[in-house]
Amino acid sequence: MSKTKIALVTGGSRGLGKNMAIALAKKGIDVVLTYHSKNDEADKVVTAIQSIGQRALALQLDAGNVKSFDGFVQELSSNLRDKTGNAQFDFLINNAGTALYAAFADTTEEQFDAAVNIHYKGVFFLTQKLLPFLNDGGRIINISSGLARFSFPGSSAYGSMKGAVEVLTRYLAKELAPRGISSNVVAPGAIATDFGGGQTRDNKEVNERLSDLTALGRVGLPDDIGGVVAFLCGEDAKWINGQRIEVSGGIFL
User: What was the pLDDT predicted at 152?
Assistant: First the structure.
């Protein structure tokens, strides 16, 4: 790692996280990205970032397993210390997540627990454990969803957990303000990625229906999201704090 600013992007090996990581690198920021199981995909993102001219590192993380966080933080801090001389970084982007499509009446406790561990509990405690390593004046960006604003059948658990993250973000903005750390939410709308089995991308009927509901007439693409995250890590966004920015093309207005 160089002495430039450093971002940690969870779930950065694919989809939106990959796009965020590359967009940050294009802004001159070094990137640590995490992956759950696909280290080959993570390595490709590292190579792409290096080709831009920034430093990159990929670390394994199960973002839903709080008991693994101490080991991850130790590995992260050790790698940063080896490469930069200290264990600090500047930007935390809590992006890792999985889909859960199930009617409220059919959602099982096992499904709920798995989702809440990664989408809320994991975000809460990973952020907490990383606070000593986040530089004063840094930024936290939590990734939510349009489903926290509008209700779409089959997303009651997922949407409500994202709503919890949005409330948490406002508390972080308040409690971390004495350190100059800002906290904001980016809430994507429907995006054409492999998320949730790729149904927005690959199911023509779903894609057309969501496009019809969106003011700008199409579903989103990863490139619509990464730049917004990178902007929030830039100097021009220094006075944005405790805010929710929906990046959805105007769905369900």
Answer: 87
Tally of domains within the chain: 1
Using DSSP bridges, classify how beta strands 182-188 and 244-247 pair: parallel, antiparallel or unpaired: parallel
* Domain annotation covers residue 1: no
d(CA 81, CA 104): 46
Q: Report the predicted TM-score, pTM, of the whole model to 2 decimal places.
A: 0.94
Q: Is the residue at 185 inside a domain?
A: yes
d(CA 51, CA 25): 10
Those residues whose C-beta lies under 8 Å from the C-beta of residue 109, and which sit 6 or more positions away, are: none
- Catalytically active residues, by annotation: 158
Asked if residues 31 and 56 have their Cβ atoms less than 8 Å apart, the reply is yes
Residue 253 lies in a domain: no
CATH number at residue 37: 3.40.50.720
The dihedrals phi and psi of 216, each to the nearest 5 degrees, come to -85, 0
Q: What is the mean pLDDT of each successive set of 10 residues along the chain, which is 253 residues long?
A: 83 95 98 95 98 97 98 98 95 95 96 97 98 98 96 94 98 98 96 65 77 92 95 98 97 93
Q: Which residues form the domain of 68?
A: 6-247
